[in-house]
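job 3f2a | input accepted
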Amino acid sequence: MVRTYRQYQQHLISGGCGYFTIIIVWFAVGVFPVKPFLVPSGSMVPVISPGDVVLIAPVNADAIKVCEIIEYRSVKENINIVHRVIEITGNAPDLFFITKGDANNSPDPDPVSTQAVMGREIIVVPKIGWLSIAVKKLLSG
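job 3f2a | predicted structure (141 res):
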């Protein structure tokens, strides 16, 4: 069967969408050792913008260094946050991380314990999450 260039393009696009969907599902169920984090706010601008997706890899807390970007669970706010480590206090195993969004004027109010650390940023995929943010805004009002 001979395909035209247009048919070939359509075949690639439809196949690519299928593969993309499978990869997203694999991320969601934990097949990959990394997980995506959709950035909802501008606290990390200009390095990470709203709508960017940060891929987070598990990390031993004692391997985290100052200036690295981590994801942690804020117990007080009951949300996950991606911010930069600006200081490390304490001694292993009782380390605490002082974090701050790059666009924020002051550090986050509470030190982050090693138990709250979800992982470390390995790559930022720009703007891929904008559709999700738009749909969420549309549905919420």
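job 3f2a | The beta strands are 35-38, 53-57, 69-74, 79-89, 96-100, 112-113, 117-125.
job 3f2a | closed
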